[in-house]
Amino acid sequence: DEHLPAPPVTADSSLGEILAFIDNAEKESLKIFEVWFADLPPIENVQRRKEVNPGVDGNDIRLFIYEPVETPWSCHCVYHIHGGGMVLLTATDILYVRWRDKLAATGMAVVGVDFRNGGGSLGNYSFPAGLNDCMSGLEWTSNNRADLGHPK
Questions:
Q1: What are the backbone dihedrals phi and psi of residue 94, each rounded to the nearest 5 degrees, phi first?
Q2: Cis omega (within 30 of 0) on the bond before 41?
Q3: Which contiguous run of DSSP H or E holds residue 47?
Q4: Residue 123 contacts residue 115 (beta carbons within 8 Å)
Q5: How far apart are CA 152 and CA 131, in angstroms?
Q6: For residue 148, how far is the Cα from the chain centroid?
Q7: Res. 139: pLDDT tops 90
Q8: What pTM does this model have?
Q9: Which of 72, 79, 91, 150 is the 20 to 30 A CA-CA neighbour of 132?
């Protein structure tokens, strides 16, 4: 019934202080995710693979492709950009892996993109680095849509 205290950083904080706060927030978020998903059973009938493709900035873009094991028809595809406000968290975090698993188990293909963040474990990259990575991944998804969701 009370407001949380204000974050220890402000617009006047140094970049180092802000990045340290982001790093800590990411670590604490991961602890929460582990607790949330600790007792859930694994999701089955999903095949997973990773693609690494060049982005528009010349960097590698990691894409995580999750597909149903057996789908007798071409299925829909969801392009997943993970949460974190383009500042923290990654596509490999348990929350986002579980989300992609759950969608693929329903019969959808899911392509998740790991993009450069403004802070956290993926580094400190300026805008529009993360957005460029997301668009590069979306372009790959569009170019490969005919193959997504088909049993391998």
A1: -55, -35
A2: no
A3: strand 46-54
A4: no
A5: 30
A6: 18
A7: yes
A8: 0.89
A9: 150
Q: Which two tokens stand for residue 121?
A: 């474990």
Q: pLDDT tens across 75-123, in order?
A: 789 999 999 999 999 999 999 999 999 999 998 999 999 999 999 999 8
**Tokens in use for 12?**
């006047």
The one-letter code for the residue type at 58 is G
Peptide bond just before 128 cis, omega within 30 deg: yes
β 77-81/60-68 pair status = unpaired
Q: Please give the order of strands across the beta sheet that includes 46-54.
A: 46-54, 60-68, 109-114, 77-81
Residue linked to tokens 């694994």: 42
Query: What is d(CA 84, CA 141) in angstroms, rounded to the nearest whole number?
Result: 22
- Partners of 61 in beta bridges: 53
Site of tokens 């999750």: 66
Residue 122's region, left for phi above 0, alpha for psi from -120 to 50, else beta, is: alpha
